[in-house]
Amino acid sequence: MKKINTLAILIALSLTGHTSNVWGQDNQNTTPATQETKQKTKTHNQKKMLKMALGTALFFDVNLSKNRTMSCATCHNPSTAFVDQRGNGVDSMASLGDDGHSLGDRNAPSAAYAMFFPEFQENKGKTKDKSAFLGGQFWDGRESNLAGQAGGPPTNPIEMGMPDKLSVVNRIKENGVYIKQFKTIYGDDIFENTEKAYGAMADAIATFEQEKSLFAPFDSKYDRFLRGEYELTVLEDLGRSLFFSENNVNCSTCHKLKREDAEGEVFTNFEYRNIGTPENTELRAKNGATATDYGLWHNPKAQTEDSKGKFKVPTLRNVAVTGPYMHNGVFKDLRTVILFYDKYNNPKSRINPETGKVWREPEVTQNLALDEFDKRYEKLLEKQKVAKKEAEKTNQEAPQQSQEEKTKK
User: Fold this and answer.
1) Structural domains for the chain
2) Full-model pTM
3) Which of 8, 128, 208, 271 can bridge 123 by disulfide, Cβ–Cβ 3.0-4.6 Å?
4) Tens-place pLDDT, residues 114-129
């Protein structure tokens, strides 16, 4: 039996029903050129609203999954800050697929504030030696933008599980409302080409994910403090001072894009780092994964040695309610994350409070961001640099075939 998210459809229909009244009457005294510009603007915004409505319905539609049990909202639930907190038998470390048994190997990142990440690209700024790339979607940036990300899960066998794009498009065509809206927005011939129709679906969902009032409201206590609407407690203000301090904890090195206390801060520099996160053995005991997760290196556009072990610096927006933490959900509590970082500065911080054991080694030891941690690690960093130079020297001194040997072949 087909399952329709009635609320999503009602939202879509209500939005499309109001587009004709948004702009009111045109000023009769405007010039023809101004009238033409206004008409183009009106048409553009009407189309955007239609697309937003369509994307809303698609985001919540379980029919886009093989067994009709899973939608985008399943792993990016608006009621839980757009993350997956269903539990899934692994304390929400990873998401459970539409088939009811497949488990992912990474924690589903929040879709909130994702609109601000630039498209995946080379980093040409001052920090390019620390992160050769920036932006993109997913933990490894393998999809350049929101539309690319939206198009991934439906055909992922351990997520929504549809066999191919045509199957997804056929599910869309089961719904008469969808057919009408797709043709209105993307043209009458949109379903004549599967790739274009699938791309239109992803585009509509991406448009919905750019609805700022829902996905990026900037309404935290910190935002209200900046607007003079809230007074921070003593502890909150101390935490704020420590966060932005470059002499104490250094959080803002990676989790700040603008100047201190600037409105609209997303608390990420959009770059990639290896901070030494350990393997999540508890999760992997359940999902059966064994291969090393090299993060950014798995992105086809970034398969260089200095990409191994690096993951996208996430936004800290809603961080208090979006656990578990790290790319693999290895830490359940935010306090554990803070103590994990503290071990680089505090020799006494040797024990993981969640396991009662010494902190485990990084899953990937290459490219650790040691120079952004404590000074005690400078010697280890120097050893890494020396080893790298020796490796390069060895490669340069490797025996080369003589010209005579080459001519013999």
Assistant:
1) 6-23+32-121+146-215 (1.10.760.10), 221-372 (1.10.760.10)
2) 0.84
3) 128
4) 999 999 999 999 999 9
